[in-house]
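Q: Hi! First time doing this. I have a protein sequence and I read that you can turn it into a structure. Is that right? Here it is:
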Amino acid sequence: MRLPVPRGPISERLFGELTADPHDFGLPEELAVPPAGPVVADEDVQVALFACYELHYQGFDEVDERWEWNRSMLAVRERLEEVFERALAAAVPPPPEAPARGVPRLLIEMVPDGPWSLADFLHKDACLDRFREFVAHRSLYHLKEADPHTWAIPRLRGPVKAALVEIQADEYGGGRAGRMHSELFRHTMRALGLDDAYGAYADLVPAITLAVGNAMSMFGLHRRHRGRLLGHLAAFEMTSSLPNLRYAQALRRLGGGAAARRYFDEHVQADAVHEQIAVYDMCGRFAASHPWLTGDVLYGAACALTLDRLFAEHVLGRWRRGASSLLEPITAGR
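A: Yes, that's right. Below is the predicted 3D structure, encoded as structure tokens:
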């Protein structure tokens, strides 16, 4: 994967530093000034934070691996995270006070019954080009599917750890490379004529798409956020089965074959099971053993739901105006 194209002074300064050998440097001056608009829609902030996090995943071809733990890079990441955390706190209502035993019920109550606006649009009305755009957006996460939540495994104990491992084992194909969900998503991309290389669409997706993934990485990379990460995963699983059924049906309508649909078909049944494990065995038991983190579990779920809603609003809003939901439309061969 190559470094993304900078989208402003922060990312331009950071990416310029990262292409040199590891060294100490000062914070970009722009980080001392609060962003003028919504941070989840700030292209410069989100692409810079995305790059900081990506150093902990697959890295970049032109970036020395020693940058991952360089103190100057970490100082930039910390400042970007402070800005992002404040923005999330402003956008996501604080969860209700609740006893630990009430967490499963509250998680269930947080998830809307529908309609799933984006899934329903893709199901009924989207053309193939719009569906391909949707898949390009999702590729930023699904080509590393499960990795952000796996950071929590060594930070848990007992039945809660076992519950998370049970979910993640399915995500990674039960040890069979061809069944990993990231690989199934690659089949979908290839069947739709999309580039299935890791991070291929990083320069085309907007800030809100990056923000969805950045929230997962931020929660995953900090032990103090482990409760938020579990709540995030629970919300992710609870809002998966029905939308994925809609996506599979959309592909059938659009003439997509079995290879294109397999990823979505797989998630209809698998995530219905994961939902129960995540809500009761993982989050319920975690709250019971960490009652002081009950609010974090619910907040993490609320962040996932809020960012997903903002993403859907962006995509549908652009489509309703007849525009691409990406920064640039996907062209032939891209």
